Amino acid sequence: MSSLHGPGPWPPHAMDLPDEPPRQDDGKVHMPSVVMDGVRTHHFRFTPDLDTVREVVELLRERAPYERLHDRLAEARALELCDELVRELARRELSRRQVYEAGRWLAEYGTRREAVKIGIVLVGASGDERDRELLLLLGTLEEFTLYAVVALLRTQPPRERERAVFELARRVTGWGRIHAVERLEGSDDPEVKAWLLREGFRNRVMDEYLAPLAATTGDLYSALLDPEPDDALVDGAGGILAALVRGEGGPTTGISAYGEAVPALARYADLVTTREATLQRLDHLLTVRRDLRRPPEHWAPGDVAALRRRYADVLAQPRWAELALAGVADPEGADFSRAQRCASALGLPILPQVVARLRADACDVFAWQGLTRLAEPEVLAALAEELLPLDDLANGPGDRVIGEHHEMALEIVVKALESHPGVGLPLIRAALRNRRVPVRRGAVRALRAWLGPQAWPESPEDAVAWVRAAHAVEPDGQLREDMQALLIEHKQR
Fold first, then answer.
1. Distance CA 73, CA 49 (A)
2. Which residues of 316-354 are buried (b: 16+ CB within 10 A; e: fewer)?
3. Per the omega criterion (within 30 degrees of 0), is the bond before 65 cis?
4. Closest C-alpha to 215, from 227, 197, 233
5. Is 436 helix (H, G, I), strand (E, B) or coil?
6. What distance in Å separates the CA atoms of residue 343 and residue 472, rounded to the nearest whole number?
7. What's the farthest any 2 CA atoms get from each other in the chain?
8. Can you tell me the mean pLDDT for 381-410?
């Protein structure tokens, strides 16, 4: 893979492993194992699989054929074995060479991901600096980064450990980057600190995971005091501060836990004032301004008031509104969604532009969401009836939870029609027959809302018939009960 794509990051398709199970079209949420490992290490406790640990140690002690060891590990969850396995190996005092040879074989020749992960763990427990390149190569696959990072820290000489992790962190962009960068916390290496502020906090999961570490380890505020900071630092600072704002109450600490937040926010506003206007910078400014409406309680009122005035003054510059409007002028532009978000936050009238966007791309869910706030309900319903393939959307029912963009758009529009009785009946009918549970549920909620103090829409018996037909084939128990309750309420009117 490295011969095709270089040291990394590799393109997403290059991350596919040969043991990836076929994706089932069963409506269940697909959670790749790399995501499961990331979520479990960050948000859940898990119980070590001690029985399997002991079984694996016995196989190693008996010098069982590597194929047998591989097949047993393929059935396990490496995350539930790794730490306890290393401790058990130390207690049993197995030959270091014996453990190493098994680990190298699993890591180099394994064909199942969980077995390869444990191979990396065994190399980490028994190898040395000569394993660096193997661990970096395997770690470039996001599936194995967590295990490779830990193995690098265990096998490399003290002065080389951080540099090895730093190299691996730059090769990955998803959960792998999160795992690697977290091991760089507290670094005093100027190159590492500079990279964290400009690029290292960015990842394909959520920048919120790494923004607090980047701000503190990278000494964000001190870096911003440079009389002439480069554009990459300014944009990185905006991304970190925006992520800290969004992260308040999220997966890690937010802006309230960053001790130098107030002066850093003030300095960022000063820097952006005289820099080129870009959508990215506008997006960051607007994100911070939104948070200043609900500042952390321990911030001094005078500081909050000063920040509010400062950001209001910066955003009052006409160039920002001009930039946002230019961004939504091209309905097929790559930055349309960001420009739409910025224009909406600035209160700019962009209904024609959003309609043009949807005519160019009816799958743009964010544009549909914007339209629900901009258009009259009749206009919204008429455009949805025109642009959404309603016959194709009446494709269920089923147990599917995750859906395609057209289905998500239908769900958004139907929800927006709850307070507008009789508007968008064709949409309601299609939603009742859609394969996704949330879409069908949205249709039932809309009809129930219409039933309240209002009369049902024109041709009420048609709508009743639609609900009866949907109820007869509804596979979701709770939704079937909701449909039955709706029919009873209508009968009692």
1. 12
2. eeeebbebbbebbeebeeebbbbbbbbbbbbebebeebb
3. no
4. 197
5. strand
6. 45
7. 81
8. 87
CB 315 within 8 A of CB 285: yes
Cβ neighbours of residue 309 under 8 Å, at least 6 residues apart?
Answer: none
Cα separation, 115 vs 108, whole angstroms: 11
- H helix intervals, 335-459: 336-345, 351-360, 365-374, 377-387, 390-393, 405-416, 425-432, 437-451
Is the Cβ–Cβ distance between 78 and 100 less than 8 Å? no
Instruction: Please tell me the predicted confidence (pLDDT) of residue 14.
Output: 61
Question: 466 or 402: which carries more pLDDT confidence?
Answer: 466
Distance set, CA 168 to CA 133, 153, 163, 211, 434 (Å): 10, 12, 9, 19, 45
The pLDDT of residue 26 is 45
Q: For residue 299, what are its two tokens?
A: 């911030």
pLDDT 10s digits, 341-378: 999 999 999 999 999 999 999 999 999 999 999 999 99
Nearest to 402 by CA among 446, 357, 434, 380: 434
Handedness of CA 216, 219, 220, 222 (dihedral sign): positive
Listed residue (182, 186, 181, 187) closest to 169, CA to CA = 181
Rounded Cα distance between 154 and 168, Å, is 15
Percent of the chain whose predicted confidence (pLDDT) is above 90: 80
Q: Which residues contact 328 (CB under 8 A, 6 or more apart)?
A: 336, 339, 340, 343, 350, 353, 354, 357
pTM above 0.70, yes or no: yes
- The proportion of the chain whose per-residue pLDDT surpasses 70, expressed as a percent, equals 90
Q: Directed axis angle between helix 279-291 and helix 336-345, to 10°?
A: 40
Q: Domains of the chain: which residue ranges?
A: 185-316, 324-492
Beta bridge partners of 400: 436
What values do phi and psi take at 271, rounded to 5? -70, -40
Amino acid at 266: A
pLDDT averaged over every residue in the chain: 91
Q: Which amino acid type is present at position 337?
A: S
Contact status, residue 222 vs residue 177, Cβ threshold 8 Å: no
**CA-based R_g, the chain, Å:** 28
CA 188 to centroid of chain Cα atoms: 29
The answer to whether the beta carbons of residues 376 and 359 sit under 8 Å apart is no
Q: Name the β-bridge partners of 436.
A: 400
User: Which positions ≥6 away from 31 have C-beta within 8 Å?
Assistant: 39
Question: What ranges in 24-81 are assigned the alpha helix state H?
Answer: 33-43, 50-61, 66-74
